[in-house]
Design brief:
- The chain is α+β, with helices and mostly antiparallel strands and 242 residues long.
- It folds into 3 domains: 54 residues, Structural Genomics Hypothetical 15.5 Kd Protein In mrcA-pckA Intergenic Region, Chain A, CATH 3.10.290.10; 90 residues, Alpha-Beta Plaits (2-Layer Sandwich); 80 residues, Alpha-Beta Plaits (2-Layer Sandwich), CATH 3.30.70.1560.
- The strands form 3 sheets. Strands 7, 8, 9, 10, 11, 12, 13, 14 and 15 form a 9-stranded mixed sheet that branches. A 4-stranded antiparallel sheet has the order 3-2-5-6. A two-stranded antiparallel sheet has the order 1-4.
- Strand 2 and strand 3 form a beta hairpin.
- Helix 1 crosses helix 2.
- The longest helix is centred in the last third of the chain and has 10 residues.
- The two termini are 21 Å apart.
- The relative contact order is 0.15.
- It binds uracil.
- Uracil binds next to helix 6.
């Protein structure tokens, strides 16, 4: 059961305040009756809701893919900085989504957002072995010893031994290396700390894939879109979710 104003707001009819007015004005019918009580509890899957003469098709959850820009925090609110939620349109914010896992303020690339707690939990749990793939620029040459160390499990500064990770060197030059790293955990600053353990520094970090889904190249930094049905199907299969 959910509140009438929340249901309608979630369907993109404006903020909770806008929706209260729509309800008060008698523009909402539930199962054929005008309802003016915005607190009314109902099951949106079972009731027929009409707003401004138009039947609404209810959606409870939202699943988004964002290309996170530099300088933005992966959180729902922050006292100083812009958050990824601030980048969303109001009609998406009304679903109250949150980021799935965190990217550092200076990390860019693929971030999922949802309001589905179960989906979030499964994607961040190491139990489901969800791969996260990063493209990184490193200040020094990355060697085959580094590749082996990543495979065997890097020990971080706090003594934690990481799960085996795949490190591929894409390019070595005087300025350092470009690499691709695949990890299955999401420890705080994990990729940066893994390289620090090898005496090297990550100077640029971008997540390019998560749970087998690649960042849509058509998304500029700061842009986002809903995950497609095919993408959702592929992810849910991976995390054994109905
Ligand atoms: N590892 C990091 O160090 N930072 C991120 O943002 C993600 C993974």
């Amino acid at each position: 059961m959910e509140r009438l104003d929340k249901i309608i707001s979630n369907m993109g009819y404006g903020s909770r305040k806008d929706v209260k007015k729509i309800i008060k004005d008698g523009r909402v019918k539930v199962d054929g009756e005008v309802v003016k009580d915005n607190n009314k509890q109902l099951d949106p899957q079972k009731s027929k809701i009409i707003v401004n003469g138009e039947e609404i098709s209810y959606k409870k959850y939202i699943y988004l893919m964002m290309n996170k820009p530099d300088g933005v925090i992966s959180a729902t609110s922050d006292d100083y900085d812009k958050t990824v939620i601030d980048l969303l349109e109001v009609e998406d914010q009304v679903f109250e989504p949150f980021p799935i896992g965190r990217l550092d303020k200076d990390t860019v690339g693929l971030l999922f957002l949802t309001n589905d707690g179960d989906f979030n939990h499964r994607l961040i749990s190491p139990k489901w072995h969800v791969d996260k793939v990063y493209y990184a620029k490193i200040d020094k040459d990355v060697t085959s010893e580094d590749v082996v160390a990543f495979k065997e499990g890097i020990v971080l500064d706090d003594g934690y031994k990481c799960m085996s990770a795949k490190l591929e060197v894409l390019n070595n030059s005087k300025e350092g290396s470009e690499v691709k790293v695949t990890v299955r955990e999401g420890k705080y600053h994990q990729v940066k700390r893994m390289f620090e353990a090898q005496g090297k520094k990550v100077v640029y970090l971008k997540r390019i894939s998560f749970a087998g889904i690649k960042l849509d190249e058509n998304l500029e930094e700061g842009e986002y879109r809903e995950l497609t049905e095919d993408e959702m199907k592929a992810i849910k299969q991976k995390i054994k979710m109905q």
